[in-house]
Structures are given as C-alpha cells and as structure tokens.
Amino acid sequence: MDIKAAVTPKTGAPFEITDLKLPEPGAKEILIKVVASGICHTDVSGRDTGMVDPPAVLGHEGAGVVEEIGSDVTEFQKGDHVVVSFASCGECDNCSSDHPAHCRNYAKLNLSSHIDEETNELVSGFFGQSSFATYSRVNQRNAVKIDKDFDLALAAPLGCGLQTGASTVLNVLKPESGSSIAVFGVGSVGLSGIVAAKIAGCENIIAVDLHDNRLELAKELGATATIKSDKDVDIAGKIKEITEAGVQNILDTTGVDMVIEQAILSLDTFGKLATAVTDDGFKIPLEILALGGNSIIGTSQGDANPQKFIPEMISYYQNGKFPYDRMVKYYEFDQINQAFEESENGSVIKPILKINE
C-alpha cells in the first residue's frame, strides 16, 4: 500500500516526508493507521549514529487504529485502538519468563530499519514499527489494546520512554516506602521515574539536571529537592547534605561518565544504581562499589512487559497519579525536524507528532 513517511535519507540528515510502499501484513501482523508517535532519544541515536541503514524510517512510540489483521491474529480486530511498543520474539527463555525487554533477539528485531531503494518499500521497521509514517505494520506481540475513550495521541509515548523510566523505578529498583531516590537527568524518562518514585512512597526524591525548566517540573511532579548540575557542582555532597548518608536508589538516564561517577558517590551503603543507557568508555570505580556494598543494574525498557505495564500506567494517569500530560508538546507531522530540534535543546521534554487525526 502507499504511505507517507518521515525518511532518514542518510546518517545525521534532516527528515524528509516521502511517499513509500508498505508490504501487506503477514499472518501474525496487524496494519495500524498511525494517529501519533512520540519522539524518543533513541530516535535521535537512530538518525545520527549509524544504528540503522539509511534510507530508513524511525519512530518507535506509535499509537493508532487497527485497519487490517493477518490470518493468525487472535488478539485484535479492525477498529481496535492500540499503543505499539518494542518487538520481542516470544519464544526465547527470557520472553517465556516474562522478560520480553531482554529478549535474546532484541537487537535483531528492534535496532534496524531499511527502505529498498529499487522497490521503494519499507522492508524492515524500527522497533518493529517505524511509526514516523501514516501506516505501520507490526507483529501482534508489539501492540497493546487500550480503551477507545483514551486519547491516542497522549497514549503514544507510553510505548518506550515513559515506560522505561517508570518501570525501572517500580520493577527494577523497587524502592521501599520511605526510602530515598535520586534521578540523574529529568527528561521524559527521568520525570517518569520521579512520578513512579512518588507512587512507590519514597520520602526523599531528588532530581538532578542542567535545565531549570525540567527541574521546576520535577518539583511539581513529586521531587522533594532539586540540584542543578552545573560544572564543578559537588552533586554527591549536596545529596548527602539532604539525606545525610546518601540515597538507597538512583536512576541514571544520562549515560555520561562524570555524572554516573557522581551518582555512584551519592549512594548509601548497599545502594543500587539502575541505568537504561551506557557509555562504552565508562570506568566503574570498583573500590567505591565494593566498600559500599553497592550495585549497578542495567535494564532495557525497565524490564517491562508492555501488555501489563502500559495499562498500569494508563490507570495511574486516570487516577491522577501519573500526570505525564504535563511533559508533552504536540506537533504536526511536517514539523518533525522542529520537534527534534526543540527536544534536543531541552526546551521541550516529550514531543508527540500528530500524524493522522
């Protein structure tokens, strides 16, 4: 079928909205009319780092309406409203034990996208969806059915960034009520972690970031203290002034060496640091970890099962506990390059593209 898509023509280049062909859905796939797609930092990496093989179509926080279903699809029907999350195989040991975010085939299924330049077909989808397009073909495992009364545009970013932050706190760190947590980097992932920490009943919730607007919103969403991470600021010292001994839990969303070192120094004895990103050159101060009995935990997507966690986030939102609508700004599809620019300069926290009304 004919679709319009925001194409990455070459690594680092601006998006171009172009006509493409999309193959018909396979037996286990559904065709979705994309209503909206969130923009996530991983999309920036896909555009700029060679993660995908351009020309390609990015986008991995899609939401829309089911238009067609494959012959073996059993969970969906035409007209269903869905949020689309990451792809997983459903067959490996990690998928079978309810850890699809650590699927053995995660990289193969998610970290690619390519357009066949001879046929003009989108032959492989980013995170199994390539949602920067008017239509998307996805495996039924990727999709989560939601109530038709819930705003699809607002639902879109639940599929990755917000899920990662909230689930890393609730399902990986699992802070006890009354405990302390610091979140380093309060973009959409970090702010979702702040809100989740409030849901978990943390007593001290400390937000660390460079941007005043993000720190202000973090306070409004549940942070009990904020620290601006200007150059030469002793972040660990300031955290220990607030908590005396340091924090029991840390979510790092930055992947920056100097920041993570400060985070480790901020941990209380037996404290845990969870990171959803990494810098290949980072040197871990093992002596500090060993003497403090601390641990660093890596996680993908907050170890979430989207079929369970996306409805959970929607329920929190509807009950007033997860006001993530405070983070978002909407853009028309043809404003995609502006949306990326404003996300990267920190003036917008969570951009959402409106693709089909």
Automatic annotation (TrEMBL):
Q: Which domain of life is it from?
A: Bacteria
Any one GO molecular-function label of the UniProt entry: zinc ion binding
Please name the InterPro entries in this protein's record: ADH-like_C (IPR013149), ADH-like_N (IPR013154), ADH_Zn_CS (IPR002328), ER (IPR020843), GroES-like_sf (IPR011032), NAD(P)-bd_dom_sf (IPR036291)
- What residue range is the signal peptide? none
- Domain Enoyl reductase (ER) residue range list: 12-353
Homology family: Belongs to the zinc-containing alcohol dehydrogenase family.
Q: What is this protein called?
A: Alcohol dehydrogenase
